[in-house]
Amino acid sequence: METIKKIFTNNKFILCIIFINSINIYLQECDYEWPILNHIDFICSMLFLIEMIVKITTLGNKEYWKSGWNKLDGTLVILSIPSIICYFFQWKIFDLSVLLVLRLLRILRVFRTLHFFPSFSKVVKGFKMAIKDSYAVLLSFFVIIVVIGLINCSLFKTIAPEYFGSPLTSIYSVFRLCTIEGWYDIPDKIAEATSSPMLASLVTGYFCFILIMGGIIGMSFINSVFVDAMVSDNNDDVKEQLDRMEKQIEELKQMLADKNK
């Protein structure tokens, strides 16, 4: 029992199983009908199940589910149980083929590898701070996109229904404009459908304004706010170190002054 516990609490061993399982699922989704792939899938599922049982036995059920990584692992193991059942019954008793798609969620266990990077916890902390500090900007930008989308839906619904035929489609089209990629397709389509060159120029100018304000200035502003919030924790660390160095320098100056006296 101690040997099993040692094996299944070894992160390197579990990491190898995660990679093998991911490669196996990739090959299965490529429609390689090799019987060995089903066996590997079953073995990986059982190993993950044993890992969960060993950890629950060692830590206790309540302590096990406290960890965010264990919540992810345990949930994915529970969702992959249909694949274990299907392996045993070979589809003869009942059909669980629909539930088998849940096994793809096991690929999410690859995110667990991020936990082994030394600075990952610091990145997560910075990301949480960035979301907290910039959610108001993100929400405001989203509201602006919704408003412009509704305006465009009212103006261009009949001219370009594929882009602005409904409020939801219109909002998505405005979001596409803000991403800059292929932004000119939409105004060109509307300009071609207009009745006069003057109106076509106004439409093009209108969409250029949306592009500049939303895609260039707006997105750049959001990125700058988010990145600044992400690195603010590092800036605080640097500031603290500089303050400590200044304090030490002042102490050295005072010691030299006292010594010269």
Any descriptors?
Helix Hairpins, 11 helices, 261 residues, mainly alpha, Four Helix Bundle (Hemerythrin (Met), subunit A)
Taking the alpha carbons of the first and last residues, their distance comes to 72 Å
Summarize the main sheet: none
Poorly predicted runs: none
> How many beta-strand elements?
0
The CATH architecture classification of the largest domain is: Orthogonal Bundle
The structural class is mainly alpha
Give the CATH class of the largest domain: Mainly Alpha
CATH fold-type name of the largest domain: Helix Hairpins
Number of helices: 11
**Portion in strands:** under 5%
Helix content: over 70%
Can you tell me the overall shape? flat
Count of spatially separate domains: 2
Radius of gyration: 29 Å
What is the residue-averaged pLDDT? 78
Order of helices and strands, N to C? Answer: HHHHHHHHHHH
Task: Describe, in short, the structure shown.
The chain is mainly α. It is built from eleven helices and no strands. Helix 7 packs across helix 9 and helix 7 runs antiparallel to helix 11.
